[in-house]
User: Fold this.
Amino acid sequence: MLGMFCGTSVTSNEEYRKYVKKRIKVLSLLIVLGVLTMGVVFMAETIWNMELESYTLGLYSGFASGLIAAGIVLILKNRKLLKEEEKLRQARIAASDERNQQISTQASKIAIAILLIAMYLIMLIGGFWYPILTKMMAFLVALYVFAYCVAYKVVSKKV
Assistant:
């Protein structure tokens, strides 16, 4: 299975090595995001004196530790990949394979459609009990449409 954000069109191992090094830098942002989340939870409890329910505290702490752990594991995996030339070549071929990229694109389209339908249903049904859900889900759908339009313009200028 090819990762959701892992397709590339590089043609040599050296280019792919640079791509993996950039990916390691991006993955380090996962760790930073996890540490920031953990910091906000800690500050909410101690400095801001917010009384968080144990469920909420566990949820945020789980997100934070999950981001940190995922970042560390993926960075180690990519560093190991950089050390083994044959595995690097195999990973490059898999990442640049047009069939894998097409599968990933199609899967993303299906996932986005399902997500938009779920957001609409939450907006429609959940809004009866929690009116703020209607505003939040409508905002998220609008954000998606806006982000798609901006990204389309930016990418179309690059291609």
Q: What stands out?
A: The CA atoms of residues 51 and 135 lie 26 Å apart.
